[in-house]
Amino acid sequence: MTTTQADPADSLVGSTVPVTRTARWSVLRRVWPPVIAIAVAVGLWWLATSVLAAPTSLLRQTAPQKALPAVGELLSRGVLLSDTGYSLYRLLVGLLVAAVIGIPAGLLIGLNTTVERAAAPLVQFLRMISPLSWTPIALAVFGIGNQPVIFLIAAAAVWPILLNTVAGVHAIEPGYLHVARSFHATRTEVLTAVILPAIRGHIQTGLRLALGIAWVVLVPAEMLGVRSGLGYQILNARDQLAYDQVVAVVLVIGVVGYLLDLVARLALGGRTGRSRHG
Fold first, then answer.
1. Are the CB atoms for 209 and 160 separated by under 8 Å?
2. How big, in percent rounded to 5, are the helix, strand and coil portions of the chain?
3. What is the pTM of this model?
4. 186 pLDDT exceeds 90?
5. Which one of 55, 91, 170, 203 has the lowest number of neighbouring Cβ atoms within 10 Å?
6. Topology classification of domain 67-267
């Protein structure tokens, strides 16, 4: 009696087909909901601006068939790329200033009960003030240019960083600190070996929240006398009554903001644990 041995290659091919189909179906399940949502949003946008809007309404200039080509026109002129670069520069510098202030202040408040009780009313008072309320003071102190814009961004972004840092310090298990002190660790060693690693997730969450707030504040802040940036381009297009370009810049702001949040999620590890933000 003869026996037939199965070819290992055949079994490998047979097992690969279902796996490949499963992987493709998994990708489709992840992709089609946002694709359909975007298509519905664009359809409603077209319906509101091209069908429901009156023939003489300015809304017809903001229709997708006019705004989307305007994006390509602005890109071909090199306007959007340079202005996006200016906006990102101001954003990053403002975030850096906010982090340099917020993280040390959060550590001081979180580690010292007396300082926390003293600072709590002031922090709660200041964080409830709209950052744009400081615009006249910023212009009076810094004048026209990048400095007032960076100041307003930092004034908006510092609070989620500070408060998440404080929350991270409060969330540290006291046993870790007791163990470090039992080994006669210095304050610097406790800070670098115990506290900072323990609050890293909270700081990452604070930075991501600060990024979103800063991007929202950036656009109106760039309408304060600077002659570059995405906020300035919105005013420039409005003054020319080019509302298709206004919507084009708004679309770019949304896309860049989405990409910034995506990069922050990837770079910061996607940490969305316990947080307290302003």
1. yes
2. 80, 0, 20
3. 0.80
4. no
5. 55
6. MetI-like fold (1.10.3720)
